Amino acid sequence: MNESIFITGANNGLGKEAARQLAMKKETKKVILFCRNENRAEAAKKDLEEHTGKKIFEIILGDVSDANSVRRAVEKIKEPIDAIILNAGGMVGKAAGKITSSGMNELAATNVLGHVILVEELIKHDKLKKAVLYPSAEAVPGVKMLGMKPVAMKTSSVDEFAGVLDGSYFGNKFDAVQAYGYVKYAATMWMLSMSRRYPHLKFVVVSPGNTKGTGAPDNLPPAMKFMLNNFMMPIIFPLIGGMVHKLEVGAKRFVDGISDEQYKSGVFYASKQGKLSGDMVDQSTFYNDLKNTTFQDNADKAIHRFIK
Asked: pTM of the entire structure?
């Protein structure tokens, strides 16, 4: 049972809904909302209290793309927490390819950098007791029906992973939609590496699936955003089946991931092959690179090139 849970990006979307669902569990005594914006965090806290009838929410301000901000946040955590949901992330928007002070681009810094530092600092200071959940995506194994090709690195070497994280892997034409799957792959492999390094903790990777109400389309190119919001989400995906679900369902995947013993450490769970919704399965059953421990460790080494 998880009595205390820390959620990054918790003021809206999947993070906020996961906080609501966790608060409704009898065993939950504290939910920490890690957010960038104080006003939005306070509004989310108030709304969660009103909808759950519980005063168990705390706010810690910080930015997962800023290493020092994350380290300061860890200092504010006075008692060990049971579980972390590393929810903050996404495609970021027009600034995705911009290089940050870490050397990673904005896309990688937001989805990887701060989360790695957060987890490792908590472990270092003995402030993490049970579980870590990282949200990956079906973009890693690909979805053939949508023309979404699986991540296909040549060697998954340390240098290749580093190139993904700073954007150089993609050459002169940086496409955030394409790069997103590769960044998620790097973070996923880091998580699987951590599961071997810290066997007393649960490191589980879960895709929320294709979820309505997350705001994710807002970061897509205008034409793609229009198609997704006006045709794919409301019309096409529901007709196909197994391609879209409600916000509550996507967030429940996170809640189940850290709470349900059927979800094991060192496994990436997402929809069945070719789907974006429905039952979750072990992705390594059809995407074999996930089993490669050398690739896992290479991702870890590449990420730490950017952590000072």
From this structure: 0.92
